[in-house]
Amino acid sequence: DAIVVATKNNGKLKEFAHALGKLDKRVLSLHDFPEIPDIVEDGDTFAANARIKAKTTGDALGVPALADDSGLRVEALGGEPGVYSARYAGEGAADEENNAKLIRELTSIGASCSEQRLDDGSRQLSKAQFVCALALYDPATGEFVEAEGTVDGVITDKPHGAGGFGYDPLFWLPQLGRGMAELSKEEKGAISHRGDALRKLLPLLMKQQ
Ligand code: ITT
């Protein structure tokens, strides 16, 4: 039994494969359907972009598709990069370039959310929140099932850990005293925005069947 996740992001994909594998679902992605043209994500919100990706993919394939639009809201930057998180340092930017730009921007405005340094001496630059909007679209009915999840943390000026993807190395979890990239897949899934959104979506999917 397979489920199509409308993403090309391998970091997301690993987390979905892990979470959905528990339900005995094999996860297919846009890598499996190169015939689907690049999707233009021009929505103003995470939810709107998730719907665009799910609908484009579901309509193209004629089967239900699940999409994830996610990103980082940084308090000291007025909520940026938000829906632009993937292309913060430019279209097609690598995670490292986006992370470097984030530290540069926060340092240049002298951002600080705590006088307290972490044990390794790193500074706490700003409160931040990861957001994940999920949309499942069924082309047979034209309907969406949606859920959104968040997790709060702090952006540090030095990386912690080598796990996860994207902005994870800069995302510190004061409540755990660890960085997001220091967590195992299980630990990240238990507290992350994506895990939160998935836990909200799954009961809605069950109800639908
Ligand atoms: P798809 O649209 O193909 O799914 P994408 O990488 O373009 O892939 P988004 O437009 O949703 O996806 O952008 C999400 C960006 O937000 C992503 O590139 C990361 O930099 C960041 N992000 C999202 N979830 C994250 C997570 O769990 N950990 C770290 N960074 C995350």
Explain what the structure shows.
The structure is a single chain. The chain has 209 residues and is α/β, with parallel strands linked by helices. It has a single domain (2-208), classed as Maf protein (Alpha-Beta Complex), CATH 3.90.950.10. It is built from five helices and seven strands. It has helices spanning 10-21, 46-61, 95-108, 185-191, 193-208; strands at 2-5, 26-29, 65-74, 124-138, 143-156, 171-173, 178-179. Helix 4 (185-191) crosses helix 5 (193-208). The two termini are 15 Å apart. Inosine 5'-triphosphate (ITT) is lined by residues 7-9, 12, 41, 68-72, 85-86, 95, 98, 130, 164-168, 192, 194. Residues 7-9, 12, 41, 68-72, 85-86, 95, 98, 130, 164-168, 192, 194 line the site of inosine 5'-triphosphate (ITT).
Low-pLDDT ranges = none
Shape-level CATH architecture: Alpha-Beta Complex
Please state roughly what percent of the residues sit in beta strands, choosing from under 5%, 5-15%, 15-25%, 25-35%, 35-45% or over 45%.
Answer: 15-25%
Largest sheet descriptor: 7 strands, mixed
> What is the rounded distance between the termini?
15 Å
Query: Major sheet: order of its strands?
Result: 2-1-3-4-5-6-7
CATH class: Alpha Beta
Number of strand segments = 7
Q: What's the tally of helices?
A: 5
The whole-angstrom Rg is 17 Å
What percent of the residues sit in helical stretches (DSSP H or I)? Answer: 25-40%
Number of domains: 1
Shape: globular
- Structural class per helix/strand content? alpha/beta
Mean pLDDT: 96
Small ligands present: inosine 5'-triphosphate
Family: Belongs to the HAM1 NTPase family.
GO molecular function, one term: dITP diphosphatase activity
Binding site for substrate: 7-12, 70, 165-168, 188, 193-194
Keywords: Hydrolase, Magnesium, Metal-binding, Nucleotide metabolism, Nucleotide-binding
